[in-house]
Write a structure and sequence with these properties.
Blueprint lengths: L6 E10 L7 E11 L4 E6 L5 H9 L6 E6 L2 E2 L5 H4 L3 E4 L13 H9 L13 H14 L16 H13 L5 E5 L7 H17 L3 E5 L3 H6 L3 E6 L2 E7 H5 L3 H12 L6 H5 L1
Parallel strand pairs: 3-8, 3-9, 6-7, 7-8
Antiparallel strand pairs: 1-2, 1-4, 4-5, 9-10
């Protein structure tokens, strides 16, 4: 594994509604490095800054202070569309990330040709169709036999699995998963997480996964960070992470933040 970080956030600060009574410091001098191949799960209460960190990295908004680097490239000032060549993203809403009125194979073709100039030769080739079929069969959802079906006809879990495939097709430098199983039932969520693990491992991707589910945060990835008030208050990996329990995680949160962990979603899950 390279010594050079794949993602580096240094002293990142972001305030919303600055200078008003509604001012909210969402990221507070946040710094974190992800090594190539790191799969980091991100946990924290509501308003801890989890999704804000992902959105800042993706360029949804500009940060007030600090720097963001991907594979030694400074992307701090790059607009969102120019960061897309480095980043794959899967959102909470299964409807986001795919074109519902297009076929499965057409969606995959769009993902495969991301960043390429679109000429007149738009039709899907036999070689592409063969590749898409093989990729879809890996998901274990039977989608390889429905390649001409409109994506709008798929279930939420099938759409999220397809979005994952599309997000990883070009092997991004960084994969951002923003509560991508939160809208799914437990059984479907487990299947999508299994597919996430598989695609991340097979493609040797560096990934950040925000979740409200403490069990999932412990079970997946090689590293876990906990956020509170825009800062990282816990960062565990290796054996320490493997031996974590939900109870221990809640206790660590209380010790570090001086508060009680009050996210019902995290506890109920």
């Amino acid at each position: 594994m390279s010594d050079k970080p794949m993602l580096s956030l240094k002293n990142v600060t972001k305030a919303f509604y600055p200078g008003t009574v509604n001012e909210k410091i969402a990221l507070n001098d946040l710094s974190i490095d992800l090594a190539p191949g790191d799969f980091v799960t991100v946990i924290g209460g509501n308003g801890a800054g989890k999704s804000t960190m992902l959105n800042a990295t993706a360029g949804v908004f500009h940060i007030d202070r600090g720097s963001i680097m991907i594979d030694s490239v400074d992307i701090t000032k790059l607009p969102e569309h120019k960061r897309a060549k480095y980043i794959g993203r899967v959102f909470q809403d299964p409807m986001t990330g795919t074109a519902s009125n297009m076929q499965i194979e057409e969606n995959l073709a769009l993902a495969a040709r991301r960043g390429k100039l679109r000429g007149l030769g738009w039709s899907i080739t036999a070689a592409e169709r063969k590749e898409f079929r093989e990729l879809l069969s890996v998901l274990g959802l039977g989608l390889e036999d429905r390649m001409t079906a409109k994506v709008g006809l798929l279930s939420g879990g099938q759409r999220q699995a397809l979005t994952l495939l599309m997000a990883t097709l070009k092997k991004p430098k960084l994969l951002l998963l923003d509560e991508h199983t939160a809208a799914l039932d437990p059984k479907t969520a487990a299947k999508v997480l299994e597919i996430s693990d598989k695609l991340i491992a097979e493609n040797d991707l560096t990934a950040l996964m925000v979740t409200h589910n403490m069990k999932d945060a412990i079970a997946h990835g090689n590293r876990l960070i906990m956020m509170h008030e825009g800062r990282i208050i816990l960062d565990v990996s290796g054996k320490e992470k493997q031996e974590l329990t939900v109870e221990a995680l809640i206790e660590k949160f209380s010790q570090t933040s001086g508060e009680t962990f009050a996210s019902d979603r995290a506890l109920l899950n």
